[in-house]
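The passage that follows is intended for readers who have already worked through the single-chain material. We present the inputs for a multi-component assembly, then the predicted structure in tokenized form, and finally a short commentary. You are encouraged to pause after the input and sketch how you expect the pieces to fit together before reading on.
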Amino acid sequence: NAGVTQTPKFRILKIGQSMTLQCAQDMNHNYMYWYRQDPGMGLKLIYYSVGAGITDKGEVPNGYNVSRSTTEDFPLRLELAAPSQTSVYFCASRWEDDSPLHFGNGTRLTVT
Amino acid sequence: QKEVEQNSGPLSVPEGAIASLNCTYSDRGSQSFFWYRQYSGKSPELIMSIYSNGDKEDGRFTAQLNKASQYVSLLIRDSQPSDSATYLCAGGFTGRRALTFGSGTRLQVQP
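Having made your guess, compare it with the prediction:
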């Protein structure tokens, strides 16, 4: 099993550009999550989904959008990138409420 | 008050010693707790899960949960320099679909 796969690994964006961070899992997990982690800081939840067609905001959703059309995929869309969105983005998934999270390897994004 | 709190450290221990990492939480509707290890520049990886009061051992790691006192801890025996990392505590609470993470404790094991 590949687990949770994130692409790209690195990306540099100019201010105002848009991009989509891809996340796919092959574990048939219902729940998927997007976190960001700024240098030396903890994880902040951006958006999450408990199943296909269902998404919900986390603590820092502004500037981002998500969709969940399939169980496997949970892309994160950045519109009008800003320097404040420079961060490492982690996608994670789990089976149900009491299950542990499985993380992808992360996408390192720089907005200049 | 943060819902899951950890001392940011760094916690420095000599090689071969026991490292004790602590986490307190404020929500009594706790269901599950998890310890993750995160090396610099890497993603968090699961070390231990614990669901009920008491101790759970896995190799050099022991997780302890005390729901009455609202704390969870991780003991690392025979600490190695390769254990140097940030350790994240995460709790799953009733009615919440996302885990609540602490900000992490940085552990340094001195050779």
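Commentary: The interface with chain A takes residues 31-32, 34, 36, 42-46, 49, 51, 88, 90, 92, 97-99, 101-104 of chain B (CB under 8 Å). The first strand of chain B starts at residue 4 and ends at 6. How closely did your sketch match?
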